[in-house]
Amino acid sequence: MDLCFECGSELSHQKTNLEKKWNNDYYTILDVPVMICPKCNEEYFDGPILTRVEELLRSDAVDRVKKRVRYH
Ligand SMILES: [Zn+2]
User: How far is the CA of 7 from the centre of ligand 1 (A)?
Assistant: First the structure.
């Protein structure tokens, strides 16, 4: 069970769209797994997930025109 560092509430597993600056542009990563606190709306991303996001941004999976990529 994962708890919020701020208030100790149980975090809910959801998916979100993450904005990330990359090569001086902002990219949107769709459907990124995230844990959200139902009380204070704090968002927590696991380290491996952020590593994967960077891999995706470097890969050919990215739409360089729309500046977006779906997490997978
Ligand atoms: Zn909280």
Answer: 4
The 10s digit of each residue's pLDDT in 22-70 is: 989 999 999 999 999 999 999 999 999 999 999 999 999 999 999 999 9
Which one, of 46, 61, 40, 56, lies nearest residue 15 by Cα? 46
What is the Å distance from ligand 1's center to 10 Cα?
8
With H, G, I as helix, E, B as strand and everything else as coil, classify residue 42.
coil
Give the separation between CA 49 and CA 53, rounded to whole angstroms. 6
Q: Identify whether the C-beta of residue 45 lies closer than 8 Å to the C-beta of residue 54.
A: no
What is the pTM assigned to this prediction? Answer: 0.87
